[in-house]
């Protein structure tokens, strides 16, 4: 299933419009069709956050990063 998702996301016009995934899916993924990354809690560091949101907006495309959190998420 992962190989199907990755190959579809790498197409210029993928048929998949939404993927819920862990960071493992994004490792090494270069999919220009990704335009939005949503986090449900803060990452462990600023570097980790930059790595994760870097999956979107490849090759000069516009992108959006959204982070949902609450005060209980603070470490």
TrEMBL record:
Its EC number is 5.6.2.4. GO terms for cellular component: chromosome; cytoplasm; nucleus. It comes from Dreissena polymorpha. Gene3D superfamilies: P-loop containing nucleotide triphosphate hydrolases (3.40.50.300). Residues 1-75 form the Helicase C-terminal domain. It comes from the Eukaryota. GO terms for molecular function: 3'-5' DNA helicase activity; four-way junction helicase activity. This is DNA 3'-5' helicase.
């Amino acid at each position: 299933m992962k190989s199907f998702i990755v190959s579809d996301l790498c197409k210029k016009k993928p048929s998949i419009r939404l993927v819920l995934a862990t960071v493992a899916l994004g490792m090494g993924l270069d999919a220009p069709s990704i335009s939005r990354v949503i986090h449900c809690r803060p990452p462990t560091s600023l570097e980790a956050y930059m790595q994760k949101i870097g999956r979107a907006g490849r090759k000069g495309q516009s992108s959006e990063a959204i982070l949902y959190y609450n005060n209980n998420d603070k470490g």
